Amino acid sequence: TQPYLVEQPEAKTFALVQDIKSTLYCLDVMNGAVEWSKPLPDRVLSDIRGVDFYGNGTNCYTFSSASRIYTLDENGHDVEGFPFQLPAPATNAVTVVDFDKNTKLNYFVACSNGQIYGFAHLGKPLDGWNSLPVAGGTAGVKGVVRQPILHFQHKGKDYLAVLTESGVLSVFGRDGTLRFKPLQLDG
């Protein structure tokens, strides 16, 4: 993978990179020292993000592969409850959202079975998201989601936008309900 930079307390920055054998490495960018390594069963699909999982100012590393969602502590150990197995192979990278800015993270991913899944902080399925048809339940609309799900907030409301390869745009609220009817984009 490309290197991903994650800052830690005390102005330390680490680069995380996966090799061709699927081993993930954490390197100190100041001296190149390998801090830790972790063999993974498959390739990292998403960005590797630093998240303050425990709310203590130290970043954990969150990312996804085709089969799992991971959160590792600063020493490369699985955080309790992780990794969690996806119900089908992921077709896009995980999107991590902290809706209430309280370090209770939510994870959203589309899978090869045509469903979108949402998981709470420790992998519990989110109400309204499991399993949500990719095109918002509209009959006859097919498509695979390759890009990450986009999250944004506007006027106190959450929006999660999903675009399929066939050009269907669906926008959901935090609870998995459609904000408006899915749109078939031209071209």
Sketch the topology as an H/E string, one letter per element: EEEEEEEEEEEEEEEE
Number of helices: 0
Helix content: under 10%
The strand order across the widest sheet is 1-2-3-4
- Number of E-type strands: 16
Q: Which class best fits the helix and strand makeup? A: mainly beta
Radius of gyration: 17 Å
User: Which shape, going by the Cα principal axes?
Assistant: globular
The description of the largest β-sheet is: 4 strands, antiparallel
> Strand content of the residues, in percent?
35-45%
Would you identify the regions where 5 or more consecutive residues have pLDDT less than 50?
Answer: 136-141
Overall average pLDDT: 89
Distance between the termini: 31 Å
Description of the molecule:
With 187 residues, this protein is an all-beta fold. The protein contains no helices and 16 strands. The protein has strands at 4-8, 12-18, 23-28, 34-39, 49-51, 60-64, 68-72, 84-85, 95-97, 106-110, 115-119, 132-133, 150-154, 157-163, 168-172, 178-184. It has a four-stranded antiparallel sheet with strand order 1-2-3-4, with no helix packed on it. Strands 5-6-7-8 form a four-stranded antiparallel sheet, with no helix packed on it. A hairpin with a 3-residue loop joins strand 1 (4-8) and strand 2 (12-18). The chain is globular, with a radius of gyration of 17 Å. The two termini are 31 Å apart. The model is unreliable at 136-141 (pLDDT under 50).
Write the layout of secondary structure elements.
Blueprint: E1 4-8, E2 12-18, E3 23-28, E4 34-39, E5 49-51, E6 60-64, E7 68-72, E8 84-85, E9 95-97, E10 106-110, E11 115-119, E12 132-133, E13 150-154, E14 157-163, E15 168-172, E16 178-184
Antiparallel strand pairs: 1-2, 2-3, 3-4, 5-6, 6-7, 7-8, 9-10, 10-11, 11-12, 13-14, 14-15, 15-16
